[in-house]
Design brief:
Blueprint: H1 7-19, H2 39-43, H3 45-78, H4 85-157, H5 167-172, H6 177-251, H7 255-259, H8 263-282, H9 292-301, E1 323-325, H10 330-336, E2 342-345, E3 352-354, E4 359-365, E5 373-377, E6 382-387, E7 389-392, E8 399-400, E9 405-409, E10 427-433, E11 436-437, H11 452-455, H12 461-470, H13 486-497, H14 505-512, H15 519-530, H16 559-569, H17 601-614, H18 630-665
Helix pairs in contact: 3-4, 3-6, 4-6, 6-14, 13-17, 14-15, 14-16, 15-17
Amino acid sequence: MKLFRNSLVYGLMVSLLIQGSVFATGSMAPNIGDIKLSEAMNQDGAFKGAVDNLTDLRASLEGFRSQLSEMDSAEKAKHKGKLDESYKEARIEIVKIIQNIDDSSMRIARLLKKLYDYKVQLQSSISELGETKANLELGKQYLSQLLLLTYKMQREIYNESGTQIDDLKVFMKSADISQVLVGNDMLNSLLVQINDLMKAATVQEKEKTALIEKLTSLKNTSQKLLTQYQEEIETLNQKKAYLITFMDLYHKKKLQDLTQKTVATELKQTQDAISALVKDIVSKNYRTENNIPEQIAQLNKQKDSSEKETSEAAWPAYPVSQISTVFKDADFEKENGFKNLSVEMSVDQGTPVYAMRDGVVYSVHQGTDQVSWVVIMHTDGYVSAYSYLSNIAVEAGELVKRGQFIGRSGGEPGTAGAGFRSEGANLTFYLFKDGTAIDPLTVLDLSVVMDKDKVLPEEYKLKYFNDQYERPIDVSKVSVFKGGTAEERTQRFLNSYAVGTYRNVDFWDQVVAGTNIDRDMVICIGFAESSLGKFLSTSNNIGNVGNNDRGDRIAYNNPFNGARLIALTLNNQYLGDYHTIKQLSRYGNEDGKIYASSPINWQSNVQKCLSKIKGFYVPEDYPFRTGVNPIENQIQRRVHRFLLLLKCRLRSQKLWKIQNKLKLEE
């Protein structure tokens, strides 16, 4: 959504796009562009469908290019061989999307190729593991026979303990003593063989362990790639739908509706729509759908969790590493002719977005080619809004808590919720107080900003230091890992503190798979409870799940089950409605169900651990969920099915009564 362009670069780009030079096409299947896919992969049932879909998707690009060429010809015919300026602007956006789909499909092809290679390696490793197991079993049988033979020979002339020669046995065997002594030489030879076999068995056991570790690593990497592939495909399908919408509007002669839009006009329309909703809220002219007035009344009755927080509002997304546009940015206003009432955060596409404090979801807006948003009404006159969302996880009328997951950020051109003219991934955040738009940075805690000198304009530096001072601990002394990716920082932490299996970041990815819990949160609970395996109270119970102050002790049969229970416990019936760290211990939860009874140390250790891994100061109310609670979702689906069944039964009973009444009347 950045609106400032380098005019020279922009002019050159327009020139290239109008000439159509970016439409150079590559070869199609069986190769994807310049990526050669093996015949074996094309014949593999598990991959053939994916390859065919990707090939079809790339083939559809040719259709889009042909349509665009026809549209160019039609526009030139209308304007004496030239392209209309508004059409040129729209065309630039379309070419960007086509090129983006082209690039993305190549990236997906590489992912598929990697996945297939991993599958081949997995099959090979499984085969090797089978051979190793067979050799081990054979070796064990041979070893068992040798040990039995050795035992029998030892009993010929040695005492029961086998430590020295028994004189009586020698006397009894005196007639065969020469054979016995020969047998004794054989015994020594057998012992050497047994020793060699033991060494070989040890080597094979190590090989077996190494193969299992390799299999686990391959499996984990494959699952990550598969998730990435699914996300990429979903994004590509959204972009394809975007192009189809554009082409359809053109053929319906409604292209002007889109070509007149710019990034600024889309932002202005979104801003005006949100402001209108805020005006209705202030005048108490509430929307009536989904029991919104009743939910607002319920919100006003309950105690707001923000009353116990050091800041009135929590950040809607983390990390806070770049702010592209500040509230009422002077350059923005000069460029676009109106005031910007939001803060635009530069975050990756799909970053979790959280409610800034307790509230009622007042409005949800989403559409194929429209900017999506969520508006939440809070207590104390606050209203917050979150726009450019690629996914929305809440509904109008829903009560939400501070730090609750409400959706995912978006803004990538051509994707759901990005509108028609977005220029990049972002989260745009609005904050109103008593009906007036206010600067979110005057309310949010600035001490969590990753690099104040890079991120914050000069006028916010004083507040940054004030917010640091307000914290219960000296933020300036919190140790964090600088640089590197999130994966690298996590692995670095595990290398420093964890033992055994717990040192592998892939292990922790598996632990949280299928849950909505931040992987690093589970690691840090393991750190707070047992120093990541160094001090286990019971076998494999790294998170002390089930171990309590009464003295109850529970062990688990393997490290995975023990670690997995941490994530599952955070989603159970007692803790499943909590969203922030401080709710999990007596530090911030005085009388509710908790994970840890410690009033200070547990919270402090988890915070310090997370801060070190995340690379910034993690506040007490940091949200630990990365999606909706899957267990709650299952319950909601069951309730929904039950209500549908109930409606069907009631309808059937009603029809039965009507039929009986008709029969009686006859």
